[in-house]
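User: If only I could read backbone structure tokens as easily as an amino acid sequence. Those tokens are not coordinates but codes from a learned vocabulary of shapes. Could you go through the record with me and say what the backbone is doing? Here is the record:
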Amino acid sequence: MAPPSYSDLGKQARDVFNKGYHFGLWKLDVKTKTNSGVEFSTAGHSNQDTGKVFGSLETKYKVKEYGLNFSEKWNTDNTLTSEVSVENQLVKGLKVSFDGMFVPHTGYVPRLRSYSYTLSYKYTRHKPPKYAVEHHPRNSSSSGSNFFTLSYRSKTGRFKTAYSHDRVRVDADFNVDLSGPLVNASGVANYQGWLAGYQVAFDSQKSKITANNFALGYSAGDFVLHTNVNDGREFGGLIYQRCNDRLETAVQLSWASGSNATKFGMAAKYDLDKDACVRAKVNNQSQIGLGYQQKLRDGITLTLSTLVDGKNFNAGGHKIGVALELEA
């Protein structure tokens, strides 16, 4: 069996801590699939503190015989994300994909460098017309009299590759940026249950390594141990244990050398039956999270959760969360 990607190391423990908790949100998720194989996912939530509403719509379509996957996602921030990938076609175990993200009404890619190209025409009496093609950095503009301008803002995308084998998993991606791409690469090796991984990020524009992470772990089915060191300053560890068919437990520990801050937490999930489960977690800041999930009927699941501040129990400020999942 191929090892997981670097980002998925310790995922079993993180799922026990994170899944089923929606503190401070009213949340609705709707999923459906057409007869032709197109998947639609609609999600929305309302923040109880700010009242802000956020929603998204995602579509996915797979062409299995050619290993092609198409997906497109739009959200209420008016950001559009598209991805095309091909898997197990060029080489067995190799996945190549391209994705892009931009705001349709501006053409700008959020938080990414982009450029625009301007085609201009100027007419002056008694002189031949003059054409010009100008290159502008982002947020620049052209001005002048008797001008009409056609602008095209380039969309910055990202190429991603992933190769998996029985003993190794390698991932790499870089964004399309003429001024210098940001390159991310990671690898995980597996030997008799032991997992070793390395992750690096390199900013070619600044010729600087921006991330340098290492992880070591052990997986034995119902037991998973994961440790990591990020940039030589942050140290963390995760332990996951499935005690029996109904009970899952997890422990999380982290320490930062710069601030000398230590974080510790424990979490558990217990299945009451095939349709219901309860969750609980607590950390060293006396924050207690509780959750209850119930499958009301096929395709309808209700999740309730609450976060209690144990240090300021009488002061209030506790949070609740309600989520409803519909699938057809």
